[in-house]
Amino acid sequence: MLSGTAMVCAFLSASFYMAATFAMKYWGGQSLLFVVPISGAALILAAVFEIEAMRTAEMGRTFIIILALEFMLTLVCAIFLLDERYTSRDILAVCLVFAGIVLLSTRDRHDTAVVAGRAMTAIRPAEQVAVQVLSETGRRTPQRAEKV
């Protein structure tokens, strides 16, 4: 689970990645002496906040959250600042990404073990019933083929 500080750092990192992307896209006609320092500074700040976010949280989860936040921020800014148009399907996809961020940032790592344990206890009785039914009907349980 990501702490509040890690989520803030992830959000700031995604914001600076997005700023670097906008700088590279819309200042393309400017001198490289102007664009490179601004993009470079934004990327350095993004990396600093990403490192800080990963310091207290799982690397994979933090990276996914930063990437998803960057995607969402870029899309929202493109809609409101650049007047780009997207379909309802695109907006639905953004909502699904947001739902994934919420699930990743709030899920406790022990939940998976509990759910898997419950699933296994539900499967065992079903397996026993299947073996009993097969034995009563005179059928054998399927066996793996042996190697020739």
UniProtKB/TrEMBL annotation:
Domain of life: Bacteria
Transmembrane segments: 33-51, 63-82, 88-106
Signal peptide: 1-19
Alphabetically ordered keywords of this record: Membrane, Signal, Transmembrane, Transmembrane helix
Listed name of the protein: EamA family transporter
Organism: Aquibium pacificus
